[in-house]
Amino acid sequence: MKDKQKRKKERTWAEAARMVLENFSDAPMTPKQILHVIQTKGLKEMSGTAPLACLVTMLHSQVRGDRVKNSIFFKLPGRMSLFTLKVLYSEIVLPA
């Protein structure tokens, strides 16, 4: 039991968001929706008073600037705050 709690505590926002978008969603999600799943499934231990702000900051920093090339996240163009994984977006836009 301690190992499971330790993994949850050590999980980053990026890891938790990736898990949500990979396993619990078949469509792009807003940060608020992602956070709701993280909380209900217990994917990350919460501390502090603004978990949504932390998640939003991480997502936006991943899709801007120099990190875009290496990021696993993708913000849908023309949408205020809808995020998905790059792999999922390429499958939707460029079906095989």
From TrEMBL:
It comes from the Eukaryota. GO terms for molecular function: chromatin binding; peroxisome proliferator activated receptor binding. Keywords: Transcription. One of its GO terms (biological process) is animal organ morphogenesis. InterPro entries: ASX/ASX-like, Asxl_HARE-HTH. Residues 11-88 form the HTH HARE-type domain. Pfam families: HARE-HTH (PF05066). GO terms for cellular component: PR-DUB complex. This is HTH HARE-type domain-containing protein. It comes from Xiphophorus couchianus (Monterrey platyfish).
